[in-house]
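User: My collaborator sent over this chain with a note saying "see what the structure looks like." That's all I know about it. Can you take a look?
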Amino acid sequence: MTIRRLAPRVAVLVDTSTSWGRRLVTGVHNYARKKGPWQLFVEARGLEEHIRVPPGWRGEGVIARVGSLAMARELLALGLPVVNVSAIRLPDVHFPGVTNDLEAGAKLAAEHFLERGFRHFAYFSLLGLPYVAAQQEAFIAAIQKAGFECAVYGVKSHDGAEPDWNLDIEQLGAWLRSLPKPVAVLTWNADSGRQVIYACQHVGVHVPEEVALLCASDDDLLCEVAQVPMSAILVAAEQIGYRAAAMLDRLIQGREVAQQPIAIPPLGIVTRQSTDTLAIHDRALVKAVSFIRRNAGIPLSVNAVARHAGLSRRALERRFREILGRTPAAEIRRAHFERAKQLLVETDLPIPDVAHAAGFGSPEYLAYIFRRETGSTPLKYRRQIRSR
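Assistant: Without extra context I'll predict from the sequence alone. Here is the result:
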């Protein structure tokens, strides 16, 4: 008689009300489908609800967003392997974990703003939350490394990483109005970003023309339904879930795992209206950069860009170097490269078709640029990103 081994029972204790939580569960599911079968226990829960394993539940392991000492104690009492997917650091709590790389996200945000020509920066912070403070400091460090300063405004949080709905909009608006314009503002999440938009509207400051706004984590619903749709960093939630599941699988099998949390860098930035602007006062340069971005799918020459901007090639190159710190040719290559990355992730086009649709002269040149910028081939890049 053959005894059939029961599938491992795994509890996934994360909120399912956010894009981050749902995508993380998808990553866990993808691992279970590939390596399983697993029996996954997931419930519909809000971000700051107290999520717990039901009394008497018997399973093999838990993947959890460990956000409080009370939750940590309950999980320790289970005597089961636990993998933490939260960036929150609690005293004397040392579960193995897989988390979002806050420093990499802050650097990505700084690059996003710097590429658009911004020279004034600010961070809208939530007080008393170490993980928000860690991202804030990483953003300030990236901005200072580029030779600029970053203003900070902090408010008390409510129910975790959420700004109080009754915060002083007039005071926040006065701070935003006092900043030199145009200014690039990074916030922790979409809820914080929404308050910045309301404060800007209250004092007559325009988004994105005067205040460009970026959220540090993308929630497609909250970012899209804002009065000004908000750009956001796309956290690699599926990969975090997948890697957390792989780590839990090793623990269930009695194998060792890394004691330090594994930090997964974000996938990129979802650009919406709140950063769809250029912080450039030179009208000819604005025309040139906009022309390059609109035509990222076709081959472009520096001469064609200069003609569209109404400048000589020499004048265009001088203004690019003085204002943006790069050449027109570099900007054209960057636009083609970003277009190619988008097509590799969002479509199933063959590599030669991607090269053509991204304005590259040949698949070989596309491969050369990818090896130089990422250390990988276009096909490997597609596989790596999709595996996340």
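A starting point for your reply to your collaborator: Residues 294 and 335 are 9 Å apart (CA to CA).
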